[in-house]
Amino acid sequence: MSGILFGVGVGPGDPELLTVKAWRLISGASTIAYLCANGGQSTALEIVRPFLPDAYKSIAIDMPMRVERQPAQAAYDEGSNRIAKDLDEGRDVVFLCEGDPLFYGSFKFVSERLIQKYDVVVVPGITSISAATAELRQPLVERDETLKVLPATMSAEKLKSELATASAAAIIKVGRHIDKVKAVLSELNLLDQATAIEHATRPTQIIRPLNEIASPTLPYFTTIIVRRK
Question: For the segment 8-28, what is each residue's pLDDT rounded down to a tens digit?
Fold first, then answer.
């Protein structure tokens, strides 16, 4: 029998925010797969390090962070082929995913290459948005309010159009797009209603009003919460 591929959400950064199911699968895994950006360390692996088994096989997928899609597709192809070898030998594979596997996650690109032949199970995790609002100690939405999740990578025009009709918004993938986001929020008179949370729940967490930030770039894992007063 073939093994099972588990896409396991490991949450936003605090190891104690793993679900019991995620902990059980990770601590008993014989093969653990994960992404490494540009050959660096895996954030997902660092999150679960306290729960790793004494011995396991690693499948590290080196993900080139480039605008062009072809290098990333090639990395997914190569990584999926390596995972398939273990599945064919009857070993389950736990694929670590920051946050939730299917919330802007890369697990989709692995699972879609394997799901026609192998069993795939997704274990949800806490998203960066839930973590950010918990750290802010304020509701994200309530009653009949609406929420929009907006990647900062979209155009300024699209971002402005979406924000104009939202009761609340979570802007993700901020990074070098911070100046664009601030300009759009300023045009909509929302800049003083926005808060930036860097690395939510991690030791490096920083929470600041967006209008106090002068830096031209922020960490990629920054969430901006906007809530109309």
Answer: 999 999 999 999 999 999 999
Structure confidence by residue, pLDDT tens digits, 63-105? 877 666 788 899 999 999 999 999 999 999 999 999 999 999 8
DSSP E strands, 42-131: 57-63, 93-97, 119-123
Q: State whether residue 216 is helix, strand or coil.
A: coil
**pTM score, whole prediction:** 0.91
Looking at per-residue pLDDT, the higher value among 131 and 39 belongs to 131
Longest distance between any two alpha carbons in the chain, whole Å: 59
Going along the chain from its start, the domains and CATH numbers come out as 4-123 (3.40.1010.10), 128-227 (3.30.950.10)
Contact 191, 211 (CB under 8 A): yes
Q: Work out the number of other CB atoms within 10 angstroms of the CB of residue 186.
A: 14
- Spell out the SS3 assignment of 115-126: CCCCEEEEECCC
Structural contact between residues 185 and 173, judged by C-beta atoms closer than 8 angstroms: no
Phi, psi of 184 (to 5 degrees): -65, -45
